[in-house]
Specification:
six-stranded parallel β-sheet, 14 helices, two-stranded antiparallel sheet
């Protein structure tokens, strides 16, 4: 049996209605910075008011920072760190989706450490400095099922000056507490439910075919894939289907754990390069656009045929007998979720960008390429983009 490391120290409260228990938990400080997106949904749906009430019941003061973008920017993270210092906040409440949780991890670092966020980034143009002062502790309250960021110790941030979208990763960034309450996900529109669900799916699919796969990552990843295969289309079609919401939220949580005990692969690097240059592209949508071309490339290399057959079965194709059946199962799920015809061109992406994006992916998030069973070249990446393009 292969070796693996397991370290996921976050306390998790999972299940419908668990937000109501926030006030009963041990708080990691006396004044929180509630970090939310720059959209309207968190306020409109009453989630911010509910969190504020829970903090009041716990005797906690707070301030609110409401500027996080869909693909969070470095400058916004720096502003959030300054707000935390100015208001004397000693912990963070990340209330929102993956972007909010990712940005909160960056804010937790720069609020108590000097310099620029990119000083602490270990890839691309980052300076790779050590984090001297312990980041502010984080309570993560997820309102989406996509990134698993409530589970892990990393956050993806975009540097608009250099078009780099990459990860800030450190063991001190595991949230102290995660609340995964599927009731908070009922308001997510169908399209974004699908985008987020496929992001969670690909965390585990990539992990299952990566060189880092091990008994623990296989266990959590396969369970996540089975849950998404069975329940995601239902959650997309009826956002009030709480059984479906709960199972997709569970799959997302497991996919976060998968990244702690295994890894993703270069598909994530290739997509991050796309949205680094096209800020309005949702991460999950970009992954969907790439997925059939990306996984077909690896199927053609026959590096792990048995695993692709198993993946097809996890998605519900019990009769699968060849690796290509995974593409058929994936296509069916995408069509069932109404996202089978996404176009790169709709987001302004053009073929003359492919080499630039491929270089960006390999330079900025090259570590994930090392997790692939087959080593991609620059021309291989361009080929994957080209075949995915429409």
């Amino acid at each position: 049996m292969e070796k693996f490391n397991y370290f996921v120290p976050t306390q998790a409260l999972f299940g419908s209605g668990r937000l109501n228990e926030l006030s009963k938990q041990e708080m990691p400080g006396k004044k929180g910075l509630i970090v939310i997106s720059n959209g309207k949904s968190i306020r409109k749906n009453g989630y911010l008011a509910r969190v504020e009430e829970q903090l009041k019941l716990a005797g906690i003061e707070y301030a609110v920072f409401d500027k996080i973008q869909a693909n969070p920017l470095k400058d916004t993270v720096m502003e959030g760190g300054a707000i935390a210092r100015e208001n004397g906040c000693d912990f963070i409440v990340a209330l929102g989706g993956g972007s909010v949780m990712d940005a909160s991890k960056g804010i937790a670092v720069v609020a108590v450490n000097d310099g620029d966020l990119w000083d602490y980034i270990g890839s691309g143009t980052g300076k790779g400095k050590g984090i001297k002062n312990a980041p502010l502790p984080i309570i993560a309250i997820t309102t989406t099922a996509g990134t698993g960021s409530e589970t892990d110790c990393g956050g993806v941030i975009t540097n608009a000056d250099t078009n780099e979208k990459t990860g800030l990763v450190h063991p001190s960034l595991f949230p102290k507490l995660a609340i995964i309450d599927p009731e908070l996900m009922k308001s997510v529109p169908p399209k974004f439910t699908a985008y987020q669900g496929f992001d969670a799916l690909f965390h585990s699919v990539e992990g299952y075919i990566s060189k880092t796969a091990n008994p623990m990552s296989d266990m959590v990843g396969s369970t996540a894939i089975k849950n998404i295969g069975k329940y995601l289309a239902r959650a997309v079609k009826d956002g009030n289907d709480m059984e479906a919401r709960e199972h997709v939220a569970f799959a997302n949580y497991l996919s976060g754990i998968e990244m702690c005990v295994g890894s993703t692969s270069s598909q994530h690097s290739l997509e991050h390069a796309m949205s680094a240059y096209h800020q309005e592209l949702p991460h999950g949508a970009g992954l969907i656009m790439l997925s059939k071309s990306y996984f077909s490339f690896f199927i053609d290399k026959h590096e792990c045929d048995d695993r692709f057959i198993e993946l097809a079965k996890f998605l519900g194709m019990e009769e699968a007998e060849k690796p290509e059946d995974f593409i058929a199962a994936l296509t069916k799920l995408q069509n069932d979720c109404g996202v089978g015809d996404l176009n790169m061109s709709d987001y302004g992406i053009t073929p003359d960008e492919f080499e630039k994006m491929a270089k960006n992916a390999m330079d900025t998030m090259g570590g994930l390429f090392m997790c692939d069973r087959y080593s991609l070249t620059l021309s291989d990446c361009v080929e994957i983009y080209t075949k995915a393009y429409k």
